[in-house]
Amino acid sequence: MSEIIPDVEEMKLLVGEPLYDIWNKLDELITEKYDMDCFWNRGGKAWKYEYKYRRGGKTLCALYARENCVGFMIVFGKDERSEFEAFRDSYAEEIQRVYDRAQTYHDGKWLMFEPSDTALFDDFIRLLKIKRKPNRKCLSLKTSVRKGSK
User: Fold this and answer.
1) Nearest to residue 108, comparing CAs of 66, 69, 60?
2) Going along 3-150, which residue ranges are E strands?
3) For residue 49, with 0-12 CB atoms within 10 Å meaning exposed, 13-18 middle and 19 or more buried, which class applies?
4) Would you give the DSSP letter of residue 149?
5) Which residues partner with 111 through β-bridges?
6) What pLDDT, in 10s, does the model give residues 69-112?
7) Which of 96, 120, 126 is nearest to 109 (CA)?
8) Which of 10, 86, 127, 146 could form a disulfide with 6 if both were Cys (CB 3.0 to 4.6 A apart)?
């Protein structure tokens, strides 16, 4: 784990306000559906920061940050690749393109996306569901309001 955890201002300066908003929306979407342990790390050669979502010793996905760019990575093992490939035509062309270009290593196929808007978020969630079923039940706003107004 990184000893230096970036604050809001550092992240905004690093990726820019619009991409910081994308980062936050993606983080909210993931944490809304998954109860995970999250860890900051150095981002390796290509990224400044990594923010990893893990549970039970297994990584679900990770967000990455560098100058004017955010990344979303998910690694698919053999069974997960088979599941994706069975339904690949139902995913956006950009998802398919990244999948086809991704390098396959001994531990899986590493899919790295660089979202600049929220257009692929529904597909990101579908990819995450291949990796792991959501373990949080989301309450609708109406349900939350009703529970709070007894």
Assistant:
1) 60
2) 37-42, 49-55, 58-66, 69-76, 104-105, 108-113
3) buried
4) T
5) 74
6) 999 999 999 999 999 999 999 999 999 999 999 999 998 999 99
7) 96
8) 10
Give burial (CB, 10 Å; 0-12/13-18/19+) of 101: exposed
Flag residues of the chain having pLDDT under 70. 1-3, 136-150
User: How is residue 17 written in tokens?
Assistant: 């306000």
Dihedral sign, CA of 12, 17, 18, 21? positive
Structure tokens at 131: 């990796």
Confirm if 48 and 141 have CB atoms less than 8 A apart: no
Structure tokens at 106: 């001994």
Instruction: Tell whether pTM > 0.85.
Output: yes
* CB-CB contact of 95 with 123 (8 Å): yes
